[in-house]
Amino acid sequence: MFKYSLLLLLFFCLTTPLLATSPTPLTPLEPLPQHSISTRLITQFIDGEHYRQVELNDQQSKEILKKYLTTLDPNRSFFTQQDIASFERYQLTLDDALKSGDMSPAFTIFQRYNQRRIERADYALARLPQVFDFTVDEVLELDRSESAWANNRAALDEIWRKRVKNDVLNLMLAKKEGDDIQQVLSKRYQRIKSHVAQTEAEDAYEYFINAYLRSIEPHTSYFSPRNSENFKINMSLSLEGIGAVLRLKDDLTMVQKIIPGGPADLSQKIHAKDYITGVAQGETGAMEDVVGWRLDDVVDLIRGPKGSIVRLQLQPKTSGLDGPSKTITLTRNKIKLEEQQAKKSIIELPGDPKKKIGIITIPTFYMDFEGYRRGDDDYRSTTRDTLVLIKELQQQGIDGLIIDLRNNGGGSLPESVSLTGLFIKKGPVVQIRHGDGRIKSDDDTDAAIAYLGPLAVLVNRYSASASEIFAGAIQDYGRGVIVGEPTYGKGTVQTIVDLNRYVRSKELGLGQLKLTMAQFFRVNGDSTQHRGVIPDIQFPTAEENAKQGERAYENALPWANIAPAQFTPYHQDEWRLDNITHQHQQRVATDLGFEFLLAQAEQRHMMEEKTSITLLETQRKTERKSLKESQDQRINDFRVSQGLAPLKDEDETLDDDDVSEEQESTFDALKMIELHETAAILSDIIEMQQNNTLSKLVEMPAQPLLK
Questions:
Q1: I want to staple 382 with a disulfide (CB 3.0 to 4.6 A). Which of 102, 164, 415, 606 is the partner?
Q2: Any domain includes 233
Q3: Any idea what the CATH number is for the domain that residue 256 is in?
Q4: 228-257 per-position pLDDT tens digit
Q5: Is 476 a catalytic residue?
Q6: Is pLDDT larger for residue 7 or for residue 508?
Q7: Is residue 391 annotated as a catalytic residue, yes or no?
């Protein structure tokens, strides 16, 4: 559960009464005819095809209502206890409504939600012109998701009084003047009302249906006709923009994922879990405050023609929502395929003689399906490109090989299977179990091996799906050592169902259903779901954190296992990983690079766990100053450890838009910390082999790997 929810609305006044406002008229929303049709289709697909067999009954009805209310008001800032009590009459009837296609209960709740949003916006607008006192020591609760619902309207007023006060304080600390603050926040609160006015029946329907689907499992979802088109654009990677997947978290736009090869990835200025609070066009365009905007409106603002410039105002994940913001400049472009392709490099380790460790970095599992279908001789794929790189590295005399899968979120399943085949003779790579219990395996059928030398696979918490299949297979076959952090834990398979195919009239616009229909299992029988792949040697940055990856979803499919497949593992007589791990731990204990990464992780963790922020101006300034000074000190300590000069005051920090040559050198050094240690681990393994501590790599007799 995340600890931030800021609508970022702020104000404080003890003596001046709230200005009177007349209620804003609210246009009723009614379900459309197609909603009944699509609902019945969706419930049939869930009942017959979804991997998790969940009966749509009274118990599930309670879960749907809970999820719907959480979706609408995750921070409990709109509804009162009286509202919630009035919705309890639907606790045992939403299942029946879904089966019959009756959307009236969902729309009744949504209508109340819209009414409360307008009331809150009116309150904020009335409070905004009044005097603020930032010398009073009080705090704003950031995460109210588990707090009690407000008793009444007066209790909601108190919550929003502090939020309005916090908005003003944030803008003051960003050096905004009084008139500018009034203008920015007035637009922000007015936007809440305009969004309510622009809300369509399709919006209400999508909210409710997705609450139903995500009460079952987090990767099953519904796309309205408009969002279906956006989904197709994102899947094809043809979008001309910044190359980032965004999601709405409360009223803020959060970066969910950076796409390899896109402008955001190449800039190194924006990261997953950063918040976008403003968007501006060109070098000089006015910054548009996007707090409280609909996600699709923010996406439309960020999109633009190739070569054009967009400026983003960010709240970096390392500074938290109460920390200083930064502005970055990006040039829009299509995702560059060449930036997603596998690349090679070499690390030379000191010694007598020096060891050469080859590195192949794979940002995603890709394949040119069109080229393959045409029969092109030179079509690109992860496996084909990696094979070429392996041959080139072997010609350069490498002693060992690292496959770097950090931040690789997956991609083509067949490519993960064929890539595994470069390192084993033949055999199953992944097992797939469908909802009806059928189990099939995807096998490598090519007995040729491209590389049989010492191998390490480097992963982190963002390595997911196809990356986990490859890493899990290498680990199960005993073919190499897995190094890094526990992976994401995405072990389910989804398919897209076009609902329009199942009705006669193609003009209804029923949208699409993304449906979880199978689960991945490793050849040893373990699932990659939830737990991910646990490295043989874990870096100290690995976090046992329930908020990481699949574990962050409260209703994610649990870890499971099935019977192991029939496969022939490789085996080192005695891997002695305890000795290798001990040597690793000794190195990182005194490594200033890992010390820096750990300090950064601790800072990030502290910000994520923060439950409240002060509304005392002097304390807020002190906290910001302390945060910046500690960050700058960590960076300079690290630079000195790498033989680099400390950054000067004019260089500022890594969070600045204009990246200097000195900052670039810091980025480059940071990227190599984990790679250098993985190379050192592989070097230790090579030495043990050379000293005959480890016997030559051999295949075990053909038999299943017993648990």
A1: 415
A2: no
A3: 2.30.42.10
A4: 655 444 443 344 678 888 888 777 888 887
A5: yes
A6: 508
A7: no
